[in-house]
Give the backbone structure.
Amino acid sequence: MGFLDIDNTTKSYGAVEVLHNVDISVEEGEFLVLVGPSGCGKSTLLNMIAGLEDISSGEIRIKDQLMNGVHPSKRNIAMVFQSYALYPNMTVGQNITFGLEMHGVPKPEREKAMHEVANLLQIENFLDRKPGALSGGQRQRVAMGRALVRNPDVFLFDEPLSNLDAKLRVDMRTEIKKLHQKLGTTIVYVTHDQIEALTLSTRIAVMNGGYVQQLGTPQEIYDTPANIFVATFMGSPAMNVIPAKVDMQNGRPVACVETHDGTTSTLPFSQDNLSEWNGKDILLGIRPETITDEDAADRKSSNIAHLTNQVVVTEPAGSDTFVSMTLGGRDVIARMRSDAEVKPGADFTFAVNMEKAVAFDPATEMRIPA
Amino acid sequence: MSVATQDTAIRTGRVMRTLIYLVLLLFVLFYMLPLYVMLVNSVKPLEEITGGGMMNLPQVFTLEPWFKAWSSAQIGVEPTGLSPYFWNSIKMVVPAVIISTVLGALNGYVLTKWRFRGDTILFGLMLFACFIPFQIVLIPMARVLGELGLAGSTWGLSLVHIVYGIGFTTLYFRNYYAVFPTELIRAAQIDGAGFFQIFWRILLPSSGPIAVVSIIWQFTNIWNDFLFGASFAGANNQPMTVALNNLVQASHGVKEYNVHFAGAILAALPTLLVYIVAGRYFVRGLMAGSVKG
């Protein structure tokens, strides 16, 4: 029994079911991120936790209290919206204390709580201003202040950073993480940005098409994605998915992939049970950063394979150089050191960390578990 | 707005520009002419008008016609001037404007933020109210007022105008609130505000421009209405417009044109005043929501 339980919950609009049997249990102090492309149902799920949308079937419980049908204001939750949703006619201070006022908290206590929160978020200097006179980052802080002042059981964030410019977004991301570490509150956070999901969360629920595709720690999601959708959605650049055939060499399974000129290269697997797939087609998943030059290969890895292939394009990006090549008829990206000596059109010997490679069943697109 | 016009104005030659201004000036004169006639003749003694000098400036300046129109001119059978009828109009207009505007705002709030099955159809039906000619409702309305016991009363007249105005005010507020961010309502719900608290504390304080539009529109229409006033008012609570008609249409005695002109201006003054006070919000409110930002 968790702190926040989402139990076999579905959402339908008329005959259309948009969320299918979601089961998530969040422990106290956890930072759960719901991530997925637009229309995957993540915001709908958040609104159901908030009580802004009805629950079609199943149960949502906070601290073991059934929340189905309970009014949003009685769930002891607070929400930060994408547009900040600050009341334009009220000052920052009034915005922060409005919720307390509605809950009948006496004025001296409201003032005290407001100053504590303003102090924490460093917004004391503009408590008397209207939201219209604030910058995006300041509004963001006020919106968080309004949520914090209520001292709720669960914080809900609905894409809170997507209206900020790129640099501010990174700063605020760090601040949210700091705040979570400091206050230890339970947070459910919706985003479509996989980097936000990986950096902020203690656990991630990757959603697509109304289904939770995978629920796990950032490490689990990144290293052992449940299926091809999760594998390619999380991580940037996306994981390379290469058609390959399983063969046996010296009693161990290997992946045979076709290089640019039609010759076949073999990459030995670390995953033993893939010998059951001998002679069958699979999809090989390799993260770009596990394809490097020999010098940069992971020294701790027990399984570095070598692969010679023609370099198609190099894209220097400052800290890294992205190198693309053709494998199994698909474009494959390698993430190399910026000083790796790769030239477009020339052959290059790549070092592939096969310890990190994963294999997918091409029929179901599910990962073949080890 | 005014900054943008300089940049986007089409550049034309000097000759063309002079010509345009000349034509515009002619239009202005044409439109100002009735007002000129009214003003000039309201401050003349009657002999100057009957002598055939309607377009001339007054030779003898007098405010006598104004005083007479206000306090002693013959309206129907009583020599009361227009003043009691002016207060009749105020008593009818103020509640009608306020109530119809608040109801329109409430309707707009519900139709956009508390959606329910069939709300668009309901709004469509309410829009019909904007297209119903006054004459059609006269007899049914008389019946309803009779049933309610409000026939011939000022409240009855206000009620007619409220009912007739709700279609317009709902249209204004619905369109204004349609672009009002729903996330604000949701934030207020989570904060614990109820239906009316959200309306009074969040929505109404942000509705200034559209409220002005609604007030100006309702005020002008109700103040200037003649038909409902003539049909439903009792002898003691006829509005200004009906009294003005009685003044001008009087079939006995000398036609005091100077008094008529002064009376007509008096009848038009309140709407003019409302425009001057609130007019600059009018266009702003009408345009609200049509263009983002």
User: Anything to note?
Assistant: The longest helix of chain A spans residues 166-183. Chain A touches chain B at residues 50-52, 71-73, 77-79, 81-83, 85, 87-89, 98-99, 102-103, 146, 150 (CB under 8 Å). Residues 201 and 361 of chain A are 29 Å apart (CA to CA). The two ends of chain A are 29 Å apart (CA to CA).
